[in-house]
Amino acid sequence: MSRRGRKTDRRTYPSSLIEEDRKRIVDGGESKRSVASALGIPESTLRKYLKTDAPATKLGRYDSTFTKEMEDEFYEYIKKVDNMYYGITARRLRVLAYEFAEKNGIPHRFNKDTRMAGKEWLRAFLKRHSDLSIRQPTSTSIVRAIGFNKPQCDRFFENLANLMKTHNFPPHAVYNMDETGISTVLNKLPRVISTKGKRCVNKISSAERGTNITAVCAMNASAHFIPPEADTSSHPHSYLQENV
């Protein structure tokens, strides 16, 4: 599938212009040659448009592999699995497109050796569905995914309302705190420049196994931050309960 840009305006005449030509010829009695010359349309092209009301034929020799309805099914499936936190990769989508075409007997030009659709098909599919893009996902545990539901959220806000009512907390005194783990050693080393043909390229790090540091940040709804806390102990939860 070519990415070559369009360089001509061939067969780009709007339907309103053709309808105007039809009225001038049928109702006005003008000749086809004079109307075509006045509007800058080739006479042969005008005659083809006037001969039939069928839509214009396609340009080029390539057809779309799937119909719009089929691609809409792909689109809805991608959104559905993404909302379930099981988004499919670009490679998996290309495999699904090939399998879908094979099982439904749809003529295609996909690679039968790799058994997947080409990168050009994927690029064109994403272009036709501009609200889709290839993103880097965030790792999410299944416990967190299951726990984030409406009953759990309602229970959280009920408990929060009871605490605020019991202790008379003002809204700005309620802080949202979260913790994250930071390693002293890079998980993924940056690329370096080395000689070609070298089998092993190494880079010195601070330690073979780094130390995990627990960082804690908290803020309230009025955008007031508490200075971050950092802990290197092996039991950060007990440290947080005693010091934060």
Automatic annotation (TrEMBL):
Record flagged with keyword Coiled coil: no
InterPro entries linked: CenT-Element_Derived, HTH_CenpB_DNA-bd_dom, WH-like_DNA-bd_sf
Domain of life: Eukaryota
One term of GO molecular function: DNA binding
Entry keywords, A to Z: DNA-binding
Gene3D superfamilies per UniProt: Winged helix-like DNA-binding domain superfamily/Winged helix DNA-binding domain
Domain HTH CENPB-type, chain residue ranges per copy: 58-135
Presence of the UniProt keyword Cell inner membrane in the record: no
One GO CC term on file: nucleus
Protein's UniProt name: HTH CENPB-type domain-containing protein
Classification of source organism: Eukaryota, Metazoa, Ecdysozoa, Arthropoda, Hexapoda
